[in-house]
């Protein structure tokens, strides 16, 4: 396992891209350390805005900067961005179609011991209901780097969620053809398709390896973009394997599994199983044990 978390990869890439494009402005709400953007603050202080613990203002200021031609990147805990500032995201970003990149850090259950107040299980469900906002969950450091670079030139609102802790590399390098809205086939198979996003992609790969020992050959899709969803990849997988399992670090209501099911039921109905966080408060503890 590498020792770099996705949020650290995000911070490093923002520094790199910020030196190239001076219109990039990074904003946070008293979360520069937890967002791993301290190097950005040190190296590009004139391109950084500290708003303080005021997530609503954070979003509105970013929207104003975008309206002025800047390329604002918000970094703040996902649990607060998707709840406290939802109205501002809905009106100032989604409805207004401002070019704001919202990065929710320490998403899902990665805060672990801090408990339910810091878990963000509803963010994906909420964000994908807002018209015009793309929703992305990178799987590892390489995908996070590719995502940040792509977002610099992507026109329009985006919500990206990344985790807090180091995760194993899924890819060997950045050179695998990342494209917003296009799933990546990590493994071909004919019996079952496992679709995952974000840091659960590693679970999907490991599960496929275990099932292969039992003679079940799985296709594995990394659905890093939940919106716009790669419908063609889902339909093709349903046709080829006849069974689909989704894995996500979110509520089972309205997230990746629900998005995939919407495509499946309308185009090529097959047996589906949705694995995620059930409809109950999440306990406090180690993220791996919680999941």
Automatic annotation (TrEMBL):
Its cofactor is thiamine diphosphate. InterPro entries: PDH/Transketolase, THDP-binding, Transketo_C/PFOR_II, Transketolase-like_Pyr-bd, Transketolase_C. CDD domains: TPP_PYR_DXS_TK_like. Keywords: Thiamine pyrophosphate. Pfam families: Transket_pyr, Transketolase_C. Coiled coil: none annotated. Residues 4-169 form the Transketolase-like pyrimidine-binding domain. Belongs to the transketolase family. This is Transketolase-like pyrimidine-binding domain-containing protein. It comes from marine sediment metagenome.
């Amino acid at each position: 396992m590498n020792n770099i978390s996705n949020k650290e990869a995000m911070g490093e890439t923002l520094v790199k891209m910020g030196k190239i494009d001076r219109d990039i402005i990074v904003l946070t709400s008293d979360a520069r350390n937890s967002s791993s953007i301290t190097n950005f603050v040190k190296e590009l202080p004139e391109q950084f805005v500290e708003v303080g613990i005021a997530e609503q203002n954070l979003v509105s200021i970013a929207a104003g900067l975008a309206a002025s031609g800047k390329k604002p990147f918000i970094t703040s805990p996902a649990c607060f961005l998707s709840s406290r500032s939802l109205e501002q995201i809905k009106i100032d970003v989604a409805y207004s179609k401002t070019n704001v990149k919202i990065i929710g850090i320490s998403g899902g259950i990665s805060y672990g011991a801090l408990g339910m107040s810091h878990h963000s299980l509803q963010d994906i469900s909420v964000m994908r209901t807002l018209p015009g906002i793309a929703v992305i969950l990178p799987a590892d450091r390489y995908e996070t780097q590719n995502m940040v670079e792509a977002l610099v030139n992507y026109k329009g609102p985006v919500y990206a969620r990344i985790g807090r802790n180091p995760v194993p590399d899924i890819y060997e390098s950045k050179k695998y053809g990342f494209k917003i809205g296009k799933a990546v086939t990590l493994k071909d198979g004919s019996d079952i398709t496992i679709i995952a996003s974000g840091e659960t992609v590693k679970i999907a790969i490991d599960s496929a390896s275990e099932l292969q020992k039992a003679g079940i050959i799985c296709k594995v899709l990394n659905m890093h973009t939940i919106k716009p969803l790669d419908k063609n990849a889902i339909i093709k997988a349903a046709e080829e394997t006849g069974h689909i399992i989704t894995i996500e670090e979110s509520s089972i209501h309205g997230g990746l599994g629900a998005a995939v099911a919407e495509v499946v039921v309308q185009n090529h109905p097959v047996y589906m199983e949705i694995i995620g966080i059930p409809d109950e408060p999440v306990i406090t503890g180690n993220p791996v044990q919680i999941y």
